[in-house]
Amino acid sequence: MSELVFFSGTMDCGKSTLALQIIHNRTARGLQSVIFTRDDRAGQGKLSSRLGLVTEAVEVTDAMDLYGHLVGVISRGGRVDYVVVDEAQFLAPEQIDQLARVVDELTLDVYAFGITTDFRTRLFPGSRRLIELADRIEALQVEALCWCGARATHNARTIDGVMVVEGAQVVVGDVDRAAEVGYEVLCRRHHRRRMTSASAAASALSPDVLPVNHG
Ligand SMILES: Nc1ncnc2c1ncn2[C@@H]1O[C@H](COP(=O)(O)OP(=O)(O)O)[C@@H](O)[C@H]1O
Ligand SMILES: Cc1cn([C@H]2C[C@H](O)[C@@H](COP(=O)(O)O)O2)c(=O)[nH]c1=O
């Protein structure tokens, strides 16, 4: 039975790496995929991992009908054994419905990879629809860690190194505190307290109690 599987997690937890491994293992057995992505950091039409691997992909646009695209490929004589979607959080809910139709009517497995929540801890619309429709939701085995050592469950956005909780939902970027707009993965406790590794280090340096001058 074909499945719609949502591999979800925070940023930087290995989703794209796993997508590339799934593609590699199936390619080695002669299976062919259509790979969709949207707004990968490496550029249009790319699926890239921080481990340095990258593969070509079909860039999803607002107007694209993913079911129609696959029917087009197959009707032109193309072979499709399964479908991979990276950065699935950026897809419209209607496009997730199209992926469910691909599973049910074209009987293809669809493996979707994406982050569930944005920097404000709110679900992305595409991820919400995946949670609603997926046959299975899988957490990545290698968890990303907060600076405190706890499992990272949330994504923080920083602007000029300072954590923010307001702004546009979509800003393509990396886990890079040096960038103007960067991201950092945190546990819920430290996301709630807006405590990034930089602000934790700064508060560790400033004494809680000011020295008393007896002089
Ligand atoms: N230099 C490195 N050596 C080993 N592993 C690395 C290195 N750089 C990144 N990684 C691994 O790659 C993961 C990020 O993979 P990636 O597929 O890009 O994440 P995601 O798609 O979830 O954002 C990190 O969690 C880490 O496990
Ligand atoms: C939290 C958050 C992230 N993004 C962007 C930043 C990256 O371009 C992608 C996530 O990619 P990854 O491969 O999972 O690291 O999403 C965003 O636009 N808005 C956010 O709130």
From TrEMBL:
Subcellular compartments: Cytoplasm
Biological process annotations from GO: DNA biosynthetic process; thymidine metabolic process
Annotated Gene3D superfamilies: 3.30.60.20, P-loop containing nucleotide triphosphate hydrolases
UniProt GO cellular component terms: cytosol
Binding site for substrate: 170-173, 183
Catalytic activity from the UniProt record: thymidine + ATP = dTMP + ADP + H(+)
Ligand binding (ATP): 9-16, 86-89
Recorded GO MF terms: ATP binding; thymidine kinase activity
Chief localization: cytoplasm
Active site per UniProt: 87 (proton acceptor)
EC number: 2.7.1.21
Annotated keywords: ATP-binding, Cytoplasm, DNA synthesis, Kinase, Nucleotide-binding, Transferase
Record family assignment: Belongs to the thymidine kinase family.
Binding partners and assembly: Homotetramer.
Entries under NCBIfam families matching the protein: PRK04296.1-2
Full protein name: Thymidine kinase
